[in-house]
Amino acid sequence: MRKIAKKSFKLPVSLIAILLGLTILTYPHNAEASSPGVPGNNPELVFPVISDTQISNDSDLEKFNNALNQLNELSPNQDAFVFLGDLTDNGYTEQYDNAMEVYEENRQDGTQSLFAIGNHEYYNDANALESQERFLEKTGMDSLYYHKVIKDYDFVVMGEEDEGYFSKQQINWLDEQLSKAEQRDSKKPIFVFMHWPIEDTTYGSEWHVEPNGELLYETLEKYPQVVFFSGHTHYPVSDPKSIYQKDFTSVNTGSVNYMWTENGYLQGHLPPGHDEVSNGLLVEVYNNRVIIKRRGFHSNDWLGDPWVIKTPAKTNKFKYTSDRDNKKPYFKKGSSVSINQDKTTSTELYAEFQQASDNILVHSYQVTAVNKMTGETAKEYTAFSEYYKDSVPEKLELPISGLKPGNEYEINIKAIDAFGNISDESLTTVGNTKK
């Protein structure tokens, strides 16, 4: 995924013909279980939602094929299949052909295919219009953005008109489609799909759509029954902030190809093993709820508890809000931190400790090293708990570098959960660098 910083976008050449929408694993330190088991009758509607395969080579195709195989085993009677953009890495003809060959080999008979265009479909020498025509030809979609009714449920797919650009015309069209869907049945959820997330919603939505983003939100907020799915960010769906409810429901779909995550942590935004993480969603719709199951294709397992959205939607009943969790993580009795003497150098210590526990998910740790002689903080950083791995390690060993030779340091470690709650207690030890 190529990230896009703030930039201006221009309306591309005339796109009227194309742009007319057609109305037709148990974690060792977390509480969430790996079982998706939610009791109930058979669903009225079933569909996977995946994104960001970014097909370029055989390895990408293998990940795509693996995801499709698992989804077929888990849901052999899919009513629809939704792909949220960045099917290819560059929008090249060969990449489309290879991707669609894998898809068609795995596509279930009778399943309606819904593909959205992503920013990577524009990363080639063609202009915007040519890139869109190629997308439509290769995926078989009739329009860049469109509205379908599948088993009496509304599916609205948005399509960026250039790299990250959604016009006012398209957003006004969206409003019309949402109004029609609400008039048909105001109690049912309306599923909206787009490659880009909306600002200040789900985990990773700092990489949001910018031009007309405010208008897009103002349009969606009128419809609390909307369940809005987006990709693009590659942020792992194992983080519970991948679902967010305020005026409507927003959902992050993760990435089939590889993981990306936020800056400012020891392991970096592409931590070790990021290219192995492969995520997606499976959605089941019942007459009074929508169940979204998170899948780790890399581990062939479910990730955490399913998300359950009750219908008809009422904003005062939303459970996946920004203030949904205020419970602090904690270290179990007897937990401790120790210094690995074998790795100690004149400027570096290694701290090893048992991971903390939380009612949902331990996200990271705050690590501080204080010089015992001067009282000054010599090192301070945050490090991921590696919650995105399979399986999450029970212990972590973190380096503390940039220290002075022959000095004594007090090491302090606090746990932080996915919602920013910090443990009251901390693990503390003392280590000495070599002279």
From TrEMBL:
One of the record's GO molecular function terms: hydrolase activity
Taxonomy, superkingdom: Bacteria
Where the record annotates domain Calcineurin-like phosphoesterase, the positions are: 49-236
Q: SUPFAM superfamilies, alphabetically?
A: Metallo-dependent phosphatases
Q: Which InterPro entries match?
A: Calcineurin-like_PHP, Ig-like_fold, Metallo-depent_PP-like, STPP_CPPED1
Tell me which PANTHER family the record gives.
Answer: METALLOPHOSPHOESTERASE, CALCINEURIN SUPERFAMILY (PTHR43143), SERINE_THREONINE-PROTEIN PHOSPHATASE CPPED1 (PTHR43143:SF1)
Q: What is this protein called?
A: 3',5'-cyclic AMP phosphodiesterase CpdA
